[in-house]
Amino acid sequence: MSQLLDKETLKKMIRENVKTLYRKTLEAASAEEVYQAAVFAVRDVITDKWMKTHDEYYEKDVKVVYYLSMEFLMGRFFGNGLINLEMYDEVKEVLEELGIDYNMVEDAEPDPGLGNGGLGRLAACFLDSLSTLQLPAYGCGIRYHYGIFEQKIENGYQVEAPDNWLENGDPWGIKRNEYAVEVKFGGNVRAVPKGNGEYRFVQENYQSVIAVPYDYPVIGYGNNTVNTLRLWEARAKNKLDLKFFNEGNYQKAAEEELLASTMTDVLYPADEHIQG
Question: N or C: which end of the chain has fewer CB within 10 A?
């Protein structure tokens, strides 16, 4: 049983979270809503460990491993997190005592398909191992809005549909606006003399997007280490050009936003054309 949350506290937190998030009683809540409420209850424990982990790294000025990958196939966070926190049996019992089937709650979590079986799963295993070995580490990747794809079978053939894993919110990711950065593409570089024989280089006529990070916890098994997976998404520097909008040119008004969103929309766009 968790040393930080006893069963009665956990029950109360889940009930309160359902009320606060959805204006419902627990009995009226769907499996998806109970799942979200349970995540926010468990995140209370995770966040304490997460903050202490990073405070310790900062105080000791440790060297940090940064693992960069285009893919991180982490799997569902809830069940894996409970096992690593050693809270699985406790949470399962709490839900059963509340009259809720744990498996229905676990199945309500979408699986973020942000990778495929090879590269993406290897990256995820490395992150899990680094946390379990209590080694300071960050995973760095891209927060794709749509995963690899959702498979449907129609008339005996596979049909691929967008895997919208963010459709019902993202209770695991913490948006970190304070670390957003501008990323510049293309344009040209002009050398400006400083007057002392040196030059200052200025990039001009470029297109740019704002990269916004979201932090996800990577929980070590049976310890107090919680490292971070930082996934970045692109957004436009100027979301809407009001001049074009007021002229009725709505497509042109949102052009910059569309360009930015396509960069982090889909895990693998088809690449048989130049845009892909």
Answer: C
Could you give the CA distance from residue 229 to residue 74 in angstroms, rounded to a whole number? Answer: 10
At 21 the three-state DSSP class reads: helix
Query: Residue 166 and residue 112: Cα distance in Å, rounded?
Result: 8
Number of C-beta neighbours around residue 51 at 10 A: 11
Distance between CA atoms of residues 275 and 130, nearest Å: 37
* Alpha helix stretches (DSSP H) within the chain: 7-22, 31-60, 77-85, 88-97, 102-107, 119-132, 242-246, 250-253, 255-265
Q: Cα separation of 243 and 24, whole Å?
A: 43
pTM here?
0.86
Domain 7-180+211-237 annotated CATH 2.40.160.60 = no
- As a whole number of angstroms, the distance between CA 109 and CA 98 comes to 19
Residues of the chain with pLDDT under 50: 1-2
* Helix H or strand E segment including 276: none
Q: What is the pLDDT of residues 32-63, one digit of tens each?
A: 999 999 999 999 899 999 999 999 999 999 99
Place of tokens 């919110």: 169
